[in-house]
Design a protein that fits this description.
By secondary structure, the chain is an alpha/beta fold. It has one domain: SH2 domain (SHC Adaptor Protein). The chain contains two helices and eight strands, in the order βαββββαβββ.
Length: about 130
Amino acid sequence: MRPSDLDPRGEQDMDPAWYVGQVTRGQAEGSLRRVNRDGAFLVRDSSKGSVTQPYTLMVLYQNKVFNIQIRKAQDGFLLGTGLKSSEVFSRVSDIINQHRQMPLLLIDAKNRGTGQQNQCALIHPAGF
């Protein structure tokens, strides 16, 4: 049993291909821009560092970086604010695996009012 198996944040199976841990938003964005392809993605520890929102999924699409909260729920993990959907995943890797097949809805905070919504699958892991 590894010490990470006991981690209260639930880091059971974070793949280093896409999980970068505690890096700044700028460093994480740099990794995405090095890949520089739609669907580049990674997961980093949330800068809030809270128990309820331990991680952030970052996705590059049309030269924009989207930051999506990964929230901790009682029975697993939720993606985003929970306003649109409330699908619970038992592990963060389950979120990643699902959205490799099924495009993720990307909402641009700046253009939220325009109703413009993009969909993008997680294609290119951008870990270090």
